[in-house]
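Hi everyone,

Forwarding the result from last night's run.
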Amino acid sequence: MNRYVTDTHALFWYRTASPRLSATAKAVFDDAAKGQSIILIPAIVLAELFYVNEKLGRPLDFVAEFDVLRAAAQFELLPFEATDVLEFGRAPGIPEMHDRMIAVAALRHDATLITRDAEIIGSGLLKVIW
């Protein structure tokens, strides 16, 4: 089964049915909903999702959304452990801490990252779709 890690914007745009989500990324999320792949959600993505949702006036009921993400078979929530910082050295081309946390999660799980982030894509460190 294909494994993907999502970044915050991709997940937010998917859950809000935003036209900002690329057709390719939407297809990956839709395939996961059909049981054809799994979407891994790092803990930092959930934290950022909370803040993006707040910033944009709460278009999502965050508690209900969290419950959906936790219960849905196509999603797997990834914890962030203190020892995970030891893997930051695997992503030297990604300077922003939260982006590095997401990238390292994708590397650790040998997963393709769903993102449009130019610095992550430009790093050439991992498989990316958008």
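The beta strands are 2-6, 37-42, 75-78, 112-114, 128-129.

Cheers,
N.
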